[in-house]
Amino acid sequence: MRRTKIVCTIGPATAEFGIIKELMVSGMDVARLNFSHGTLAEHGKRLIHLREACRQTGKRVGILMDTRGPEVRLGSFRGGEVELKEGTGFTLTTEDVEGDYRRVSVSYKDLPGYLTPGARILIDDGIVALIVEKIIDTEIICCVEHGGTLASRKSINLPGININLPVLSSEDERDIGFALEQDADFLAVSFIRSASDVIAIRQFVEERKGIIKIIAKIENEAGVINFSEILEVADGIMVARGDLGVEIPAEDVPLVQKKVIAACNRAGKPVITATQMLDSMIRHPRPTRAEASDVANAIFDG
Questions:
Q1: pLDDT over threshold 90, residue 247
Q2: Cβ contact 121:135 at 8 Å
């Protein structure tokens, strides 16, 4: 029996029944649905396809639902995306606007209060970097340090800045309720900072008479610092390397990954290595040599 399990994210490119069935036949062990993207109706349709594919193939595939967590995201762009060029101006606003090459909304209304001129804002796992120039009321006026393509709803990271966001937003409560209604097997909770975050989510689940395994995602500095206590109260761990790699120095991520996997093995708890696994295969039929080594090392680590 293959001990290492394969988790596949079911998104727009893999949402059709035929593709989901192919994923199962090819070895998918767990299907991940990401609440940061898509509607509950869309996720519900994917679950119908998953269960029908299970029935037809005779395979048992776990369902993992991934919460938004205490995150900050961009709003939507007209046309879905824009291209930002280095050295140009770009504004983040707490007003509800349709984004373009000049400005876009952010999801957290109190964000301007946490920033000062010179602060660095990383978007989409650090692909685009902005430097704050000034703040005027609801607007954060920036200069593009590193340009690139920005798409709607991409994540925002503020290295070294602790934002006082609640563990559970109203959207998270709704999404977790949906996961419980759908009898999901695992709940991956984003941006866990301490054991108390996991305990609060477990209490929310228990109040609703729910049964689901809680996977704590380690993807910020606080999560790394408090990892030992988080491991004690979580049912499993996910090393979410995308956000983690912009919240801490990128060169520290491999060491954190190895330490987290080793600790989970000692504790007898499952651990998932995630983000940019075989990323080039979005565009190409074969992985790079580096990606093949990355997958192999995650398996060797345990």
A1: no
A2: no
Whether 69 has a pLDDT exceeding 90, the answer reads no
Beta-strand pair 236-240/271-274: parallel
Co-location of 264 and 199 in the same domain: yes
DSSP E strands in 124-241: the ranges are 128-136, 139-146, 148-151, 155-157, 186-189, 213-218, 236-240
Tell me the pTM. 0.85
Same domain, yes or no, for 50 and 78?
A: no
CB 228 within 8 A of CB 140: no
Catalytic choice (32, 103, 154, 241)? 32
Residue 229 to residue 227: CA distance in whole angstroms = 6
Report residue 1's pLDDT band, with 50, 70 and 90 as the boundaries. Answer: low
Kindly state the helix (H) or strand (E) to which residue 246 belongs, with its residue range: helix 241-247
CATH, residue 91: 2.40.33.10
Active-site residue, selected from the candidate residues 9, 14, 91, 275: 275
Catalytic residue among 120, 193, 217, 241: 217
Sequence letter at residue 67: T
Give the tens place of pLDDT for each residue, 94-109: 999 999 999 999 999 9
Q: List the domain range (segments joined by +) for residue 278.
A: 7-71+166-301
pLDDT-derived band of residue 264, with 50, 70 and 90 as boundaries?
very high
Q: Is 275 marked active-site?
A: yes
Length of the chain: 302
Q: Is 174 a known active-site residue? A: no
Among the options 45, 51, 59, 73, which is catalytic? 73
- Shared-domain flag, residues 170 and 272: yes
Residues 133 and 265 in one domain: no
What are the Cα distances from residue 114, in Å, to 95, 102, 129, 202, 209?
A: 17, 22, 17, 29, 38
